[in-house]
Structure formats: structure tokens, C-alpha cells
Amino acid sequence: MKFAVALTLTILALTTAANGSELRIALAEDPDLLDPAQGTSFVGRDVFAAMCDKLVDIAPDMSFVPQLATAWTWSDDSKSLTLKIRDGVLFQDGTKLDADAVKANLDRYRMAPESKRKAELKPVANVVVADPLTVRIELSAPYAPLLAVLADRAGMMMSPTALAALGDKIATKPVCAGPYKFVERVPQEHIVLERFDKYWNPGPYAIDRITYTPVPDATVRLAGLRSGGFDMIDRLATHDVDAVKSDPSLSYVEITALGYYLMSINIANGPAADNPLAKDKRVREALELSIDRKILNDVVFDGKFVPSNQFEAPGSRYWDAAHPVPARDVVAAKKLLAEAGAPHPAFTLTAGTGTTDLQVAQTLQAMAAEAGFDAKIQATEAATMVQKNSAGDYQAGLAIWSGRPDPDGNIAIWIACDGFLNWGKYCNADLDKNLAAARTTTDPAARAKLYAEAADIYLADRPALVLYHFKWMWGLSRKVTGFVPNPDGLIRLAGMKIGG
Fold first, then answer.
1. How does residue 313 score in pLDDT terms, banded at 50, 70 and 90?
2. Is the pLDDT of residue 315 over 60?
3. Burial class (CB in 10 A: 0-12, 13-18, 19+), 196
4. Pseudo-torsion of CA 322, 324, 327, 331, nearest 10°?
5. What is the 3-state secondary structure (H, E, C) of 431-481?
6. Among 29, 282, 297, 387, which residue has the fewest nearby CB atoms (within 10 Å)?
7. Cβ contacts of residue 443 below 8 Å, gap of 6+?
8. What CATH class does 257-471 carry?
């Protein structure tokens, strides 16, 4: 109740303070650390999209396009990538972007103790400054996902001056080279950015000020949009789509996502893994057999999402048709639990505090109970949940992954032995060999075969259960124009305007 009252007051304050050059965005969660090296939350990437340009960006058709790097070339042996750095770019503290700055950032991402990007850049053996505006990334082996990695957090450039001053505390005052600069953050309340007047490409950016407000409750987000307290809301609930479409003051935008929703299971990360779900894959198989993904989709999402059991979306290039979504079979689930000697296994399911997260958790809880599971739900704020899960302080946890254009960024991050979101510490040497082989070739057919073999392994071990692929859905005030959706789900502010 206190949260609801405080949020109502925040919305009223924002409504009063609104002006034509401010875009007020309600996010489904509060971002974690505003440092590309340390951050892991999806909503953090929304803020980074405004604040931190990358070496490479992704177009709506999922092609790679220049941003801070104007061009790139692979060596004949595919073991080095040379990038030309855009001239005349300044960081938001006035520091010049050059090859030395790029090297400093890439070296930090791959070596700093606080960096969560190490696994993504593990194949990088060296970063060489070839001239003031040329960087050569040398690899220990061919690494097909590298461009996709540079189109995400590991490609975001921060000011070396600010990094030298703040080190691993850079998240308290991030300084990047994007169109909007950091002004302030009040955790759980708001993040404010302002337009950077020396940005290298100012033309597409007409809005002066961006305010992000975390609002976990989808109903409250919609109420804020309707009242004029927000100009844009992310992760519109599926049951609210018709309400937005029928409101003449609002507009609705959607796009099919790269991303998915999954349940991560703590297999071997500390004392919390001492339970039947972690110790016996028959129990995990029983849990999956207790779930009807179609019913989950119909009940929680009005049938608008895509039931799925793999990290790649059904029908996409690297999805394996040999492993379709399994049907629900409660009888078979009970039999497996009896064979495992655990007819009534208990576990705690961690979920976010948002309305949709809790609906998913409650639906899964009810389904699993019919097979004999005693699942307790623990609602946890998103950033706190990531920290606790990373530390092994969970048994099973629901999580959203926004998706990446390269399959390695959808699969290895969760289940490779060194995956940076491998919260449960699952580790299978055969799977790791398979994923490593898939990184060394750019041939789609060869990669598809390797990822099919990977599916054979992880779908049997079940260290995580993918539940569905989703759609990105936004509600906007009719005053907001120029928003172009992207399958990665990030809000890119280029071209957006606010009318009178």
C-alpha cells in the first residue's frame, strides 16, 4: 500500500512538472547498476540505449550497422577484427573518443574484477591500437558472435577519464558517448537524463530530457499513461492491449521479440541447491511435464505469446524441430517423482514483483501442485533478485531474457559452465565443447547442426526451462511520434518527438 501511494504521488508530480521537451517513460523494473561492465538487467539496457553509444548497433532487420565504429573487416583466418573508430566523438565529460579509449574499455570488460562481460569476450587475446582511430581485436580462435557482442554492453564506450576517477563505482555517475547524459538517480524512484549538446549526431534527437520511473505493476503503468503522468510505458500487459487500442489519446506498438522467459534452476550453487529439484534430473523432468505452456500463454497472455522450450524461437534458423514443446503429462510426472523417491518435492520459486511475473509464478505453482510439487513463491524486486540469484540464494527463479541476434548470446549465457547468467552453476563439459565449436564457424548450416546437438544435451538435463517467447508491447501517448520498434526490445530515442 505504501508503494502504491508513493507511486501515485510520483505520477502526480510528474504530470505537474511535464513539459513538451520531456519524455517520461515507465519501466517495468528498476535497473540494476548503470555500468555496462556490471549491469545485467534488461531495463538497464533501455537506459544505456539513450546514454551509451556502442561500437556497433542493430537495425530493426537484425543487421549490424555502424555507430561508434564506422567500418570493420575480418582477417582471412577470422582471428582478428579491425574497426575504424568514428572521428570527432566526445564523451559527455569532454574526453575525446579514440582508439586508446576503445582499448581501455574493451580491456576493462574482459579483465576487470567487477566485469560481467568476461565470458562474452573470453576469446579476445589482445586489443591493439593500430593508429589513433583504428583498433584491431585479436582472437585466440575464430569467434562468430563477436559483432553481436560489440552491439551490446561490451561495445558501449565509457569515458576513460571517468573510469580512472571512479573505477568500479562508475555506476554512480556514468559517463558515456551517447545522445543523453546522466543527471541523477534515486533508486526505486527515477533516473533522469538530459540531451548532450556535443553529441556527434544530434539531428535525430529532439527531446531535451528523459525521465525513467520504475513501476512494477502493469495496471499502475497503464493508469499513469492514461492520466498523462507517463508518455510511454514498456511491457504493456497483454490483457491491456485492447484498452490502449481503443483509447483515442493513446497508441499501441508491438514487435515479435528475440527474447524469452525462463525458469532457472539452482543446480550446484551453494546450500540452496541441496534439494531434489537440483539433485535429480528426473524431478526436473517431472516439473516440466507438469507445465502446460499453451494454458500458461492463454491464461496469462491471452494467447498472444509463443509457447517455447528452447532458447531460440520456434521456426527460427537455430530452433531444433526435433524437440517440439512437450505436452503436459501429470501421470508421467508423478511416476518420475515416485521413481526419484521424492513424491512431494518442495522448492521456492523466486519471481519479480510485477503483476505479470506473479501471474506466471502462480499459474506454474498451481500446475506443479497437481503433480505433487509444493512450490512456494517468493516475490523479489528485480535488481535484488539478480544479486541473490547470482550469489546462489535461490532454488528456482523466473527471469526474462531480451534476446540477442546471435544464438550464442541466447544459449551460452545461461548454461555454459562460465555463462555470466549461469546462476545455478550447471556445468556439462560435452555441452561446452559443442557451444565452443559453434562459435568458431560462420556457416549457418554447420552452426544449426551444432546447436541441435546442444539441445539434445540441455533439454535432457533441464538446468533451465524456457517457457515462452514473447512480443514487445508498448503504450504511448498520441503526442509521442517517431518511435520505431526493434526486436531487441530497446527504446531507441532517435526520431522521437513530443507534440503539443
1. confident
2. yes
3. buried
4. 40
5. HHHHHHHHHCCCCHHHHHHHHHHHHHHHHHHCCEEEEEEEEEEEEEECCEE
6. 387
7. none
8. alpha beta
Average pLDDT over residues 216-224: 95
Amino acid code (one letter) for 15: T
Q: Domain 2-52+178-249+478-498's class?
A: alpha beta
Phi-psi region of 112 (alpha: psi -120 to 50; beta: other; left: phi over 0): beta
Provide DSSP, 210-263: EEEEE---HHHHHHHHHHTS-SEESS--GGGHHHHHT-TTEEEEEEEEEEEEEE
Check residue 485 and give its pLDDT. Answer: 95
Compute the residue count for the chain.
Answer: 500
Q: Grid coordinates in use for 145?
A: 558472435
Q: Please say whether the beta carbons of 330 and 367 come within 8 A.
A: no
CA distance 228 to 478: 11
The pLDDT tens digits for 354-382 are 888 999 999 999 999 999 999 999 999 98
Task: Report DSSP state, residue 272.
Answer: G
**Helix, strand, coil distribution of the chain in percent, nearest 5:** 35, 25, 40
What's the CATH number for 56-162?
3.90.76.10
Q: Reply yes or no on whether the pLDDT at 2 is more than 50.
A: no
Please say whether the beta carbons of 245 and 493 come within 8 A.
Answer: no
Alpha helices, H only, 302-415: 330-339, 355-371, 382-390, 408-415
At 375, which helix (H) or strand (E)?
strand 374-379
User: CA nearest 259: which of 152, 405, 71, 161?
Assistant: 405
pLDDT at 214 over 70: yes
User: Does residue 372 sit in helix, strand or coil?
Assistant: coil
For 369-422, how does the pLDDT look when each residue is reduced to its tens digit (9 = 90+)?
Answer: 999 999 999 999 988 999 999 999 999 999 999 888 899 999 999 999 999 899
Per-domain residue ranges for the chain? Answer: 2-52+178-249+478-498, 56-162, 257-471
Among candidates 401, 473, 490, which has minimal Cα distance to 49?
Answer: 490
